[in-house]
Amino acid sequence: MTRGLWVTLEGGDGSGKTTQATLLEEWLRERGRSVVRTREPGGTDVGVLIRDIVLHHRGDIAPRAEALLYAADRAHHVATLVRPALERGEVVIQDRYLDSSVAYQGAGRVLDGGEVRDLSLWGTEGALPDVTVLLDLDPAAARRRLDAADKPFDRL
Ligand SMILES: Nc1ncnc2c1ncn2[C@@H]1O[C@H](COP(=O)(O)OP(=O)(O)O)[C@@H](O)[C@H]1O
Ligand SMILES: [Mg+2]
User: Fold this and answer.
1) C-alpha of residue 135 to centroid of ligand 2, in Å
2) Cα 62 from chain centre
3) CA–CA separation, 92 vs 83, rounded Å?
4) Vertex 23, ends 71 and 2: CA angle to 5°?
5) Which pLDDT score, from 0 to 100, does residue 32 have?
6) Residue ranges near ligand 2 (ion) with Cβ within 5 Å
7) Which end of the chain is more exposed for a tag (fewer CB within 10 A), N or C?
8) What's the start-to-end Cα distance of the chain, in Å?
């Protein structure tokens, strides 16, 4: 995409995405860059509603319906927030993108990861970040960090 820089952070809960995003944001702001911090799901007003369904709905959501909800959040987020920021030349630092869907809706469940990825790419007209940082932390270590910080696991 044009002009700005789009960085996404991936990794399990407790792997350090928020911590690293904050450090990167500070580092860029000290150098005079405009930074937009955002996340999926839930980076927009519509996304907040979708986030509530996918993270807090009690009971099952059919796997294809869940994949579509994430893809819908992503489509709206890229169209209304990410692309405009990049076109203004800003840096977008984003917590989770389609790799999370491939992992959680694809590899982790019954759907095919390639189909999940294609669904997102359709929704976003093929938008891909300039840089993706994967924080590949052992889940047991992540769990210990979350326990130490009193942070619960969510539905993911
Ligand atoms: N490099 C690190 N070493 C030890 N603890 C860390 C490190 N990075 C983050 N943490 C702690 O681990 C917990 C989860 O970090 P966080 O950045 O919130 O992860 P995420 O956003 O991926 O869930 C927080 O309590 C944070 O202070
Ligand atoms: Mg976080």
Assistant:
1) 12
2) 21
3) 9
4) 50
5) 96
6) 17-18
7) C
8) 29
Query: How many angstroms separate the CA atoms of 40 and 30, rounded?
Result: 26
Which sequence spans correspond to the domains of the chain?
5-148
CA 27, CA 33: separation in Å to the nearest integer? 9
Could you tell me how many residues make up the chain? 156
Give the pLDDT score at 118: 97
The CATH number of domain 5-148 is 3.50.50.60: no
Question: For position 57, what pLDDT does the model report?
Answer: 93
142 Cα: distance to centroid of ligand 1 (angstroms): 8
DSSP state letter for 152 = P
Greatest alpha-carbon span in the chain: 46
Tell which atom from ligand 1 comes closest to the C-alpha of 13.
23
